[in-house]
Amino acid sequence: MAASDRFWDGIYQQYHPRLLRQVEKYLPTREESQDVLQDLYVQLRRRDVDPKEVENPPAYLMRMATNLAIDVLRRKSRNPLEFSDPAYIAEMKGSGDLYATPEQISSDRQRLDIIAMAVESLPPRCREAFLFCKRDHLTPAEAAEKLGVSRNMVEKHLRTALKHCREVLARHEN
User: Fold this and answer.
1) Of these four, 20, 42, 53, 119, which has the most CB atoms within 10 Å of its CB?
2) Cα separation, 43 vs 63, whole angstroms
3) Which residue, 74, 81, 80, is CA-closest to 138?
């Protein structure tokens, strides 16, 4: 383990309780806050920042943690509902007037499976762009930065992916 890694590990461990309290100010659950701190640790190791280049390492970690928590909030605000299981959605408070039948839930699950297969069959870069935007709730510009391509290319990938998903779903429903 390099000296800088040992330094950052030590600072992270020393300030972990403070970092957790800071992140909990932004996020509703302790689990989400702990996930953010895990992401912080991973990013810290990936960035390989020389501690000599950082004037105030604890403040640096605090800023990173705050930024990551805010990123989580932004992604949630773009798409507040995560549609994972139709049965769960049917049981949500206020959805009683929708009367989702077991048949409808089963049908919805089948449609989700078909869409998942369609997404998996996309070309890799197209699939990555689609998942960054639709699953991770990044903007096309943010996805473009992560992929190292232009925003226009990400938008082209999104159009291609959506068209493909519609076509696959239509084939299965006919």
Assistant:
1) 119
2) 13
3) 74
